[in-house]
């Protein structure tokens, strides 16, 4: 249902009706999760398949929000943050897609408990100010109302991530 929620949020709450953006929302996790099912050439073949089936703009959007294959023995969280910043900096529509994906993933944390919740809260928390900055930019193709809605959701996410992270710190670490 995640893919549908991401697409519906873009349509209903962000007032975006461009078919390519909606297709990308529905397909945004496909390469991360099923590249080898799409093509024997892995990720590069999967992106090529998306371009053939849905057009280069859709493949480009999916590529912009697809997490990279991480370099081993390097900070995964730092690589994730650097990827998000680099890929969204010059891709305004990818910001819209990432905001919806991030919102849905962040909301899902209320159903997660224990160490996994804290781990995800620590992963997502550094992204909040980055996304807020990117969404607030003039070239982000959303109405003022949609931007304001996303920025309020990011404020709420920041508070929740902080509460989750602090609730899981052992008493001696507080």
Strand-helix topology:
Blueprint: H1 2-13, H2 19-27, H3 30-38, H4 42-54, H5 56-65, H6 76-89, H7 92-108, H8 114-124, H9 127-136, H10 144-167
CATH architectural name: Orthogonal Bundle
Number of helices: 10
| CATH top level label | Mainly Alpha
Number of domains: 1
What is the helix/strand order? HHHHHHHHHH
Classify the fold: give the CATH topology: Hypothetical protein af1432
Can you characterise this structure?
- The chain contains ten helices and no strands.
- It has a single domain (2-173), classed as Hypothetical protein af1432 (Orthogonal Bundle), CATH 1.10.3210.10.
- By secondary structure, it is mainly alpha-helical.
- 30% of the residues are buried.
- Helix content is 74%, strand content 0%.
Key words describing this protein structure:
single chain; 174 residues; mainly alpha; Hypothetical protein af1432; 0% strand
Brief synopsis:
The protein has helices at residues 2-13, 19-27, 30-38, 42-54, 56-65, 76-89, 92-108, 114-124, 127-136, 144-167. It is mainly α and 174 residues long. It has one domain (2-173): Hypothetical protein af1432 (Orthogonal Bundle).
